[in-house]
Amino acid sequence: MRPLALALGLLAGAAGAEDRLAATETAWRDWYGAHRVGDTSLAVAEDGALRLSLARSVAPGRPAALASLSKAVTAACIAALAGEGRVAYDTALSEYIPDAPAGLTVAQLLTHGGGLWPDGTQASMWGWVNDPEDRHRAASEAALARPLESAGYRYNNENYAVLGHLVEAVTGEDFEAACTARVFAPLALETPARSARYGAFLPWGGWEMSAEDYALFAEATFAGTDPGAFPSAPVGRGARYGMGAFFFEAEGLRITWHTGLLCFGSIDGAGAYFVQIAPGPTVAVTFDGCPGEGALAALDQALLTALLQ
Questions:
Q1: Would you say the pTM of this structure is higher than 0.70?
Q2: How far is residue 129's CA from residue 143's CA, in Å, rounded to a whole number?
Q3: Exposure of 81 in the CB half-sphere (CA atoms within 13 A)
Q4: C-alpha pair distances (Å), 11 with each of 129, 223, 279
Q5: Most CB contacts within 10 A, which of 107, 178, 204, 288?
Q6: CB of 115 within 8 A of CB of 152?
Q7: Predicted confidence (pLDDT) per residue in 137-153, tens digit
Q8: b/e burial code for range 242-258 (CB count within 10 A of at least 16 → b)
């Protein structure tokens, strides 16, 4: 969780846009210099346009693994289906997937609140690295076959595996094709694709795209969105989870964020981070490697300080 007290203390800052961009670049460079990070990219978008794009060791615009930032893509896909009238948030999942546990709703899946627990993907994902087979349907069926625990927020990849299953059940299309058409094509994004390395867990962690495209996607998805229009659930300290990301609102601003990390022992890892401030900029960072404990919290704090000064 981000340091909410720090953010609230910075909300009244009044630095200019150019100062914020310079501070954001400095924060990113200081961060990767201090932690075990390989190739990394930074992008800043605002008002539908890129304001900054930088990379270390690779060309800006290189596609990179999104890890759990993929969940926002799945949520946006479900929102598009809701807009088409093909999914309703408060409807029981069993209306779409007959074998689903009674009472589990689409909204509960989106907010990790329906009682799917423990997370069965954690023991399997390392074995699915470099696996060309799509594993979300198997993960979904295994999760739905178990009795539900008590309702309440528990972050679990299985919720988004089930949402991938739901997309295919209501559209009759492959998940990747269905969501590419509904999420990426309208934004004319060029780099989103199933990761060759992590694509087996596409709905919860297997997309790849450039930091530039993710910043544009996140801005389009969150900057002008009314959080009340979508399911969300409290997760503590004033924050909520909805649309595949965390957010909180204070002092006339809404801050939306998520982090993702794919690290499996000796297997080289990857990660990503985004933060969107409404009104204000959206920042996306991708990186290779598995930085040490506290590294993502340090990135979060550094970028908040830069953006909210």
A1: yes
A2: 20
A3: 26
A4: 41, 17, 12
A5: 204
A6: yes
A7: 999 999 999 999 999 99
A8: bbbbbbbeeeebbbbbb
